[in-house]
Amino acid sequence: MGIEHGTHGSDGPDQPQRELPDGQPDSAKPADKAGALPPDKPGFPGQRSRYESLAAAAQDSESAQTLDKPSVQDRQEKTAGPEAGETGRALDESEPVKSAEGIVGITRAMSREAARAPEASGQKASDSAERPDAETEAGDVVLDRRQAPADPSEQTVDAVAESGESEDADRSAAWRAHVETMKKKWAELESELSSDRPSGADGDDGSRGESVDRSEDEPGSWRGEGGQYLSYEENMAVSRVFDRVRDVEPGVTDALKRHEAEVKDAELIGLEYRLKGQERFKQKVAEKLEGESREDPERAAGAIHDALRYTYQIPADSYTRGYREIVGRLGRDGFEMEYSKNSWGKSEYKGINTRWRTPGGQPFEIQFHTPESFEAKQLTHGAYEQLRNPPISEQTRVKMKAFQREVSAGIPIPEGVADIPDYRKVEEQKDG
């Protein structure tokens, strides 16, 4: 058995073989040459005399082909610990040892003993073999294999998990600080709005800030706070559509709740706002009719896509997967997607807005948000309402849009969300 890499022979594993006078390497010489005595090495005084004693003992026992077991056991105790695994294998007391091989083994044991002995300079030798967890040079630490986990991969998984949790905590802290800054900024902007908005301008609910005269309206008609108007027949038609929406709502809500339970990390939020208020519904229909011929109020009411509206909130790290899974499940339920707009690449609003239709033809809306993008939507709602209900000054308009951009700039972007395409259903052309 030859000396393996990692052992501590007289030359060390990284030095080339020395040439003997006749040009042969020392490993090629006969076994009796292996007992040639090396000179004392610096730092190991008495090595030559000790080597002579040990070599003589090995030669005397050559006929038996084995070494005295107690001495081998003693050497095993001295070589126990991390060195046994690092040098290839530990000495085996049951294995016969040839004379030349025995000398090699003795040389190893002697080198380890010398490494543990006090050096000539008086300094203490390293005790890292006896204390495997002791520090070595350059701050390295030799780990105690007896204390290592049974599965080293568990340590790696734990380290990765801890690193991910730390990154999530940092992102969350940064977002919270951003939100607090934006809340203060919005408070400052709100204080400017009262002086900036012209008198008679619409309020957040669409009203024009003044009482509405209904004295000349026909009986059964409807007029909104913003002056929007529905005749008696229009009002009756729109009311019938709203009643149908109210009847359909429980079935749609149950389906979406079922998918909330089935899709990991998905959460339905804001369910208390899922059904648009009747006054706001009529207001939207009246505004739509003002831009049309007013020939079919029921059709106009049926086209209000957000009379039923829902919001799924999914964490950023599972957002893309969750969106795709929910869309697939809704399709298998018989709901048909008619429109999808991915606004994650936009500067003033981030999220995905989708429009659907039930098998019975009722439209409804689903928005997909992360916790951060939903909070940003709520924070910028005041600015959105200011922009939606002009007239406002150009200076205010610029400030409102800038505020929306600044809030949205701090939202973490989900991985893979850019791969979700926009979609719009192509209406079939009718003959004739």
Structure description:
The protein is of the alpha+beta class and 432 residues long. It has 2 domains: 1-117, no CATH class; 177-197 and 218-424, Beta Polymerase, domain 2. 44% of the residues lie in helices and 8% in strands. It has helices at 47-60, 69-79, 82-86, 99-116, 152-196, 232-262, 278-290, 297-302, 319-332, 371-379, 381-388, 394-408, and strands spanning 222-223, 229-230, 267-269, 309-313, 336-342, 352-357, 363-369, 423-424. Strands 3-4-7-6-5-8 form a 6-stranded mixed β-sheet. A two-stranded antiparallel sheet has the order 1-2. A hairpin with a 5-residue loop joins β1 (222-223) and β2 (229-230). The longest helix is centred in the middle third of the chain and has 45 residues, at 152-196. The radius of gyration is 42 Å and the shape is globular. Mean pLDDT is 73; it is low at 1-37, 41-48, 63-70, 75-100 and 117-149.
Helix/strand layout:
Layout: H1 47-60, H2 69-79, H3 82-86, H4 99-116, H5 152-196, E1 222-223, E2 229-230, H6 232-262, E3 267-269, H7 278-290, H8 297-302, E4 309-313, H9 319-332, E5 336-342, E6 352-357, E7 363-369, H10 371-379, H11 381-388, H12 394-408, E8 423-424
Parallel strand pairs: 4-7
Antiparallel strand pairs: 1-2, 3-4, 5-6, 5-8, 6-7
Concise synopsis of the structure shown:
This protein has helices at residues 47-60, 69-79, 82-86, 99-116, 152-196, 232-262, 278-290, 297-302, 319-332, 371-379, 381-388, 394-408, and strands spanning 222-223, 229-230, 267-269, 309-313, 336-342, 352-357, 363-369, 423-424.
The CATH architecture designation of the largest domain is: 2-Layer Sandwich
Roughly what fraction of the amino acids lie in strands? 5-15%
- H/E series: HHHHHEEHEHHEHEEEHHHE
Gap from first CA to last CA: 97 Å
Unreliably modeled segments: 1-37, 41-48, 63-70, 75-100, 117-149
Mean pLDDT: 73
